[in-house]
Predict the 3D structure of the following.
Amino acid sequence: MTDLAATDPLPKPKRDLAPILLPVALALLMIPLIGSTSSWLTLTVASLAMGMMIFIMASGLTLVFGLMDVLNFGHGAFIAVGAYVATLVLAPFAASIQADSLLANLAVLAPAALLSMAVSGALGLVVERVLILPVYGQHLKQILMTTGGLIVAEQTLYALWGPQIIPMPLPASLRGSFILGDVAIAKYRVLAMLIGLGIFIAIQLVLNRSKLGLLIRAGVENREMVEALGYRIRRLFLGVFMTGSALAGLGGVMWALYREQVHASMSDDLTVLIFIVVIIGGLGSIGGCFIGAILVAMVANYGGFLVPKLALVSNILLMVAILMWRPRGLYAVTSR
Amino acid sequence: MTDLLKLSGVHTHIGRYHILQGIDLAVPEGQVTMLLGRNGAGKTTTLRTIMGLWQASKGEISLAGQRIESLATPDIARLGVGYVPESMAVFSDLTVKENLVLAARDAPLDEKQLDWIFGFFPALRRFWLSRAGSLSGGQKQMLSIARAIVEPRKLLLIDEPTKGLAPAIVMALIECLKEIKRKGATILLVEQNFFAARELGDNVLVMDNGTIVHRGEMAALAADVPLQERLLGLSLETHQ
């Protein structure tokens, strides 16, 4: 037993900084390889914006993975549903979207995003109760059920909206770029970065400064012990699942605006990236998910610029490299 | 002395295995009841069944006269049952403070109770803001016990607290558990360390193959070496 006086100063918690430094090191390493500072800055901003959007979509999934040990292969459905629901609001108010007024744009965009989150969250409630509740603890069945759910969701979207790609133009005030010297930074990318950062800070505040957050972090690590302390973790599961689904819906709206189009299978490619982010970040780790999303986006952007032929496999290589360095991800939370 | 906890004819199945095969036991209020037995006898399963972590397939479990065998684990915990599992199960990603804040449930941490706990476990004060995952095995065990006593509990279920710990830490834990006992706590304690069992126990239950094969006073078992050898396969002398 360490027998120390009560008045001894308390040690500060140690911080694992290596994963945080990784994207910084990668970005700095790219400066000489890319050559042009303006191209490097454009690619870096694009990476950060893309990373933030992927983080928003992946953050819910990592908590669902970590807390509930659920392999939700249908997470992409919430992304697509979120994007489609936004069109319901944006289409009738196309004039406001195209008005050259930030306030007018946001007056339509904000309710569209909120409605998307509400519908995706409600869909999350249904999915958890109907598809996942009967198969808790059975990974193979979870994969089958959630993949089946994704197919049903995609086909329902096709049936309701048709197979065509639906345009989703950026609001007028978010078009164009900020010009800094010879560098152009797209306005929408800045907004995406700010929203992503805001959500990251909000999640971190909830996880680290509230009792609810403590319960989620503890539940990710040991559900049984949380119950033995007197907490009903099933309710927590449901809340986290719905929040994760709602965030995926928001991510869907942001991604659709980024690509300026909506399609029922828009999440197919994203789902692979999201799973890579969740795995390399460490199951259940929001910090790991945040850094993982930035890394994945950086590798996609820098890799696409430098070695386009490797673009498809670059993120798989990233995942292999990270897992060789840290087999349970950048920040291991669970023992899985 | 009234019985705080009673098990009558409790059976537990885990998958196709029939682990508890009709357990009858009583834990008197304000006393420490030792649950001894060889590995695989069913001791941990008994605690987990009481806690609702595994459902009893048959039989009755009552706490202070209230039937609890069909209650969910959180409800049993909220009736005042503290559980210290064999694995300790501290939340590694949380600080020592955060582990105790969760254990206190709805109430704020009681400073007086904390000072009392720090009296036994000064390391917890020292590492108050450190991640529990960075603690040593002994310190994790201290945290696990502190979590169970940070609020007054009617009953403590403690599973092999001395397992794998250095002798000096075992002695400190025994002193702590003695102090908890002096405060009138009711404890059902699973232990393989016979020395610790003799120091702490008022009563003893010995399990084998999912049933209780002996019940009586701890002092009587401690004094009867042939009985120890017959029931446990080891005598107190070999543990010292």
Notes: The first strand of chain B starts at residue 3 and ends at 14. Residues 235-240 of chain B have pLDDT under 50 and may be disordered.
